[in-house]
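Take a careful look at the sequence and tokenised backbone pasted below. I need to know what the token row says about the fold.
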Amino acid sequence: MQCVVVYDIPDDRLRSKVADICLDYGLERIQYSAFAGSLAPSHMDELLAKIKKRAGNKAADVQIFPICTTCWNKRRQWKQQEKTNPTK
């Protein structure tokens, strides 16, 4: 099942560790604190448990949104890299 993982974590080191954990699960970074990809429901629980364990008593807000295939395929994306001016 496709999912989106978003988090708001004030601690820089913990935020970096959470990103590493998301990457370990094969998720792709789509924003600085947002990842997307395919996860089995049991892996969603496992991922959240690992993040909770890593966070300990530090502030963190982590949300995982499962998205059905139909809705995932209907998503729209626009992405652009900054264009440089070749005349400079």
User: Anything to note?
Assistant: The first strand starts at residue 2 and ends at 8. The chain has a mean pLDDT of 94.
